[in-house]
Amino acid sequence: MEPVNTDVSAGPPEGTDAAGHGSGETERQPTLGMILLAAEELWPESLAEDWDEVGLVAGRPAAGVGRILFAVDPTLEVIEEAIEFGAELLITHHPLLLKGVTSVAATTAKGRAVHRLIETGTALLTVHTNGDSAVGGVSDVLADALGLQNVAPLSPASNGLPEEGIGRVGDLAEPLTLGEFAARVFGILPAVAGGVRVSGDRDGLVRRVAVCGGAGDSLLDAVRAADADVYLTADLRHHPASEAREEAVNNRPYLIDVSHFASEWLWLPAAAEALGNVLGDQGHNVQIRVSTTNSDPWDFILTPG
Asked: Potential cystine with 212: which of 44, 221, 223, 233 (Cβ 3.0-4.6 Å)?
């Protein structure tokens, strides 16, 4: 499955504003500040992890926004895609400036990114671990795509609702073999070079499934406590994965390691639709698109045989 171009149009009936009065398109166009309020409603910044940096990175809250691009990473290629689309706002899952900086000179990739954003009037908003934790967030979308039922957080949010938190755990409607489940995972994710890596008995049965979009090996204790048969996440490092296999009970939890980018890309269309619905309900006229740029860093892989 390749990343697809998803457009979401938000707005009231043609020729009317939110109150039903005659209005031109400019009058219905929201400001960046209005969109920030809508984003806060969907993905509260209070849900972000303490180490994270989320929120507005560049942009004037008073500026008008008619087009928005959603993407996983604020890479230079993605920024150019946003500029070509004419987006006044780029919303990315990953932060551009997660660590402190003392310079944004255009002598580095991040410096060039900041310059391109400001020079072209393109605002940047980061929705990271708050987008992971929120209802309808990254892991919720992943769990839904896999058909999980009775879904609950793996690590409940300290500042949120009971259904909010990092990771999700739930049950398949019918048991699958690990091989069948891995094939389902492969089928729902965007195509990337790394594919899907699996640890466990291909014919072993799985029903209870834990998921975490993005890097999730810090949740392995929670996965075991949740009695999951299999854990799907990204960026599983050698030592945590090896230790999880050593500590497995009845060979469980099995492990499925996928691309960080691919595991989080699934959220983009859902997030674009959610924001479009909120803005549309408020009477705003905005065109929202999902990036088609594959920002997975790997280009090809060699495997035995």
From this structure: 233
Q: What is the pLDDT along the chain (305 residues), one digit of tens a residue?
A: 444 456 765 643 333 333 333 344 444 899 999 999 999 999 999 999 999 999 999 999 999 999 999 999 999 999 999 999 999 999 999 999 998 888 999 999 999 999 999 999 999 999 999 999 999 999 999 999 999 999 999 999 988 899 999 999 999 999 999 999 999 999 999 999 999 999 999 999 999 999 999 999 999 999 999 999 999 999 999 999 999 999 999 999 999 999 999 999 999 999 999 999 999 999 999 999 999 999 999 999 998 87
Which residues 6+ apart lie within 8 Å of 153 measured at CB? Answer: 133, 162, 163, 164, 165, 166, 167, 168, 169
pTM for the predicted model, two decimal places: 0.90
Q: Please state, in angstroms and as integers, the Cα–Cα distance from residue 226 to each residue in 145, 229, 252, 254, following that order.
A: 20, 9, 11, 13
According to DSSP, the β-strands at 149-156 and 123-126 are unpaired
